[in-house]
Design a protein that fits this description.
This protein is an all-alpha fold. The chain is built from nine helices and no strands.
Length: 193
């Protein structure tokens, strides 16, 4: 069945079919969440919240775009809202992001402790650099890199042109390069001293 057929049946009362929608899109939604939150538990919780929000908003889905595009928009907006609130509501203490970090840099089966610490530090620096991007740049990068979306798909979700997506990705990558190169120059100087 297509998404439209399933949604039509759900709206007619067959609520159990929503499980089919969740199964189809849970990985996609989780990837977006982990790209913004960098924490597996937080991403799991937000993924559930997004599916609840989508379910309660199904009557608002008019079919003007693909269901997946509509769901992506809900997911991106929920992630942006969560990260905005997090900046004002709490400061994380300690490292609770080890599972999420493995997405960025794979872990070898055995690593020496100093290499593990260096990898964790690099991941934290990358996440801070990613979090430091403008919202629209971060959204484009997360959709591109975490969910491997095309510029056309990102344009649909963000409701902008493909040219704007290309520009956002270019500026985001340049900004990340600049931020990360500053970190690595500092590390090189530390080793030389």
């Amino acid at each position: 069945m297509t998404d439209s057929e399933i949604i039509s049946l759900i709206l007619k009362g067959d609520r159990n079919l929503y499980r089919e929608i969740v199964d189809r899109y849970k990985t996609m939604v989780f990837r977006i969440c982990i790209g913004f939150l960098h924490n597996k538990d937080d991403a799991d919780d937000l993924t559930q919240d997004i599916f609840i929000q989508a379910y309660t908003s199904l009557l608002g889905f008019k079919g003007g775009s693909a269901f997946s595009t509509w769901l992506y928009r809900i997911a991106v907006n929920a992630c942006l809202n969560t990260t905005r609130k997090a900046k004002f509501n709490f400061i994380r203490v300690g490292d609770h992001t080890s599972e999420a970090k493995e997405i960025n840099l794979p872990v070898a089966h055995y690593e020496e402790p100093d290499k593990i610490l260096m990898r964790k530090e690099q991941q934290e620096i990358f996440q801070k650099a990613l979090d430091g991007l403008k919202e629209n740049q971060r959204t484009a990068i997360v959709l591109s890199k975490y969910d491997d979306m095309s510029q056309r798909e990102i344009a649909e979700i963000m409701n902008i042109s493909e040219g704007n997506v290309e520009s956002l990705l270019f500026r985001a990558k340049a900004s990340l390069r600049e931020k990360l190169s500053g970190f690595y120059k500092t590390q090189k100087l530390k080793k030389e001293i």
